[in-house]
Amino acid sequence: MPYRITIEEVGAGSVNFNCSDQQTVLRGMEALGNRGIPVGCRQGGCGVCKVEVLEGTYRKRVMSREQVSEDDENAHRVLACCIWPTSDLRLRVIGKMVDAVRKTGTAAITVAG
Amino acid sequence: MSMTGVLRPGHAAIRVLDLEQGVNFYKNVLGLLETGRDNQGRVYFKAWDERDHNSLVIRQADRPGIDFFAFKVQSKAVLEKLDADLKAYGVTTERIPAGEMLHTGERVRFKIPTGHLIELYAEKTDVGNGMPYVNPETWVPDLKGIAPVRMDHCLLYGGDIDATRKLFEEVLGFSLVERILMEDGKTDLAIWLTCSIKAHDIAFVRHPEDGKLHHVSFLLESWEQVLKAADLMSMNRVSIDMGPTRHGVTRGTTIYAFDPSGNRFETFCGGYQWYPDMQPITWTFDNVGAGVFYHDRKLNPAFLAVVT
Prior knowledge:
Chain A has helices at residues 25-31, 70-74, 100-104, and strands spanning 2-10, 13-20, 50-55, 58-60, 77-79, 83-85, 89-93. Chain A is an alpha+beta fold.
């Protein structure tokens, strides 16, 4: 059955969509063209879709320790591509598409003298 | 360049979050052949048309990414010479004994300025491509999955791509084929290097974090096979990043997608042939979109931000 997912603090309001327990929260968001959580590898590796689950329960799969520490995981800071809802969920986006090259120009990048 | 030194990419060693899930993906979805497992828990694969024992090695770890990328060199004498040349250039090298990887000879390993471990080796067991060396057929039937013909190249992300380029050119005999410039019109954002007549054998993108993997690439033989690969990815719910489309750089037709641990891989076809009398092609920063994704003429957000 579908659960109601609420992403808080997206722009001026929040984003809501339905997601079945057979679909990850990230795929559920993407499937009908919703936005709010950055989409990267969708396989637990890159970390751009990190969220904090504020309310609700979910199933999860293994994700990169480089992106999600044990403390994170225990505090429900997880990757949206690696969780399946088992109740309605309320969450907040933590992850970012960090694009250092375009956002900061050459200055922040190592250039050999 | 007459292919007497570094011959070609030989193997990529990558980390996966769940070994059996990785094995299932690389064997049944990408369609590589499993060729062995060692006592370190590593699983070895080759593409069907490759003759050497392995070209992709996976191991389970708590984070995905690349452990090392290797090139095969022409002979043991060349291996000795390149080791000496690297040392003379100021690079610290390490010898890894024959047999440490299954069916693989002694390896010379060193770290490049972008933080990646690169290896050179001269020997790997020829297990053949499933067809005899006398009067062979033209292809092997009953292959599974996408079934690329070979592991072709990789794209790595790290900081000092200038010093890495210099090392590849001056010590290993690679040449610059294409480049994308940054906004200043001088600094390279990305470089494509070849040790053969391929448009690329390895490529680098400038990135604030060292040692990162953008993708390992596998060669298909036609554009139709690239389309079929996308069908197989959808059937198997593979996470596709981009494509099927074409790169402006190298002109290859391509799909970027992710393995079950988030390591990006590419299935591609084409690209032009390069000879050492050809000057490099340059893409300016305002055309980076067309250079990377020729049809869309824009980058997707993941190209510069999503790596393992």
